[in-house]
Amino acid sequence: xxxxxxxxxxxxxxxxxxxxxxxxxxxxxxxxxxxxxxxxxxxxxxxxxxxxxxxxxxxxxxxxxxxxxxxxxxxxxxxxxxxxxxxxxxxxxxxxxxxxxxxxxxxxxxxxxxxxxxxxxxxxxxxxxxxxxxxxxxxxxxxxxxxxxxxxxxxxxxxxxxxxxxxxxxxxxxxxxxxxxxxxxxxxxxxxxxxxxxxxxxxxxxxxxxxxxxxxxxxxxxxxxxxxxxxxxxxxxxxxxxxxxxxxxxxxxxxxxxxxxxxxxxxxxxxxxxxxxxxxxxxxxxxxxxxxxxxxxxxxxxxxxxxxxxxxxxxxxxxxxxxxxxxxxxxxxxxxxxxxxxxxxxxxxxxxx
Length: 353
What we know:
Blueprint: H1 2-8, H2 14-23, H3 27-49, H4 56-78, H5 83-102, H6 107-113, H7 116-127, H8 130-153, H9 157-190, H10 201-217, E1 221-231, H11 233-240, H12 242-260, E2 265-270, E3 273-278, H13 282-297, E4 304-314, H14 321-341, E5 347-349
Parallel strand pairs: 4-5
Antiparallel strand pairs: 1-3, 1-4, 2-3
């Protein structure tokens, strides 16, 4: 019951999920998908209105609903709606699909129309509150049940039961899958720096713990880090502005990813500071640090980096992974400040971690 209560009290996820899509440059793609889906619904609804035997008043109502879906398509084509607008569109979409499904004379057409609820329920499950999802699924199941009863009364009870079961299964499982997907996206979002796409502090600690545990399971291994601080970044930010500063950070992040390659943790820990971690001895990490130092300096703004290297041997879980991370990062941080005091654009290696 406690889990159900926690689920029911979950807040609206529209704002942060929209921001997540924007930072991943996926918002235009999401708008395109929603525009196409809304247009498909508009065309389908209008075509249903021309179904044989459709009464005149009902046909007019369905035309209005089709125009509403066309309006949704126009909105998504122009911009991403606000959270309130999205909530209103979701409610209107549920009611519009329900009315469209219940107006045809042929109940089979109504059952077919009910499949449109599945996509809407998945959208609501991903972006909005459990309360709105419950409303959407409730309207959906009620409409499916009504259409199934009409089909059964028309003499096709087996088909009515079969379609009701299939529709109910889809309406219950698809939103559940959407909730799982959002949870995965949330885990990624809270562990990723939105500007650079690198890990943030939380993501670094989680990935580093996994790396250390794997090294410990091998019986003997190493964990090393490089602390990177950009030289003169604050002055550049004040002189050229934050937009240029952000561009520098994004460029340096791309450089770290390119030079380090797979199997290496690349992190922005805040401001102009970065951390690179790898399950390798400090000697190997120093070679990587030298490559990073040269690569970072090869930018059009003349920004360089001060780098500190530190590492530790991990032996079969002798120490807590969190303690190992703190020791190595602290040592690399001290070495990095030695490089900065020496003039920057150079590397220092810690004597011990």
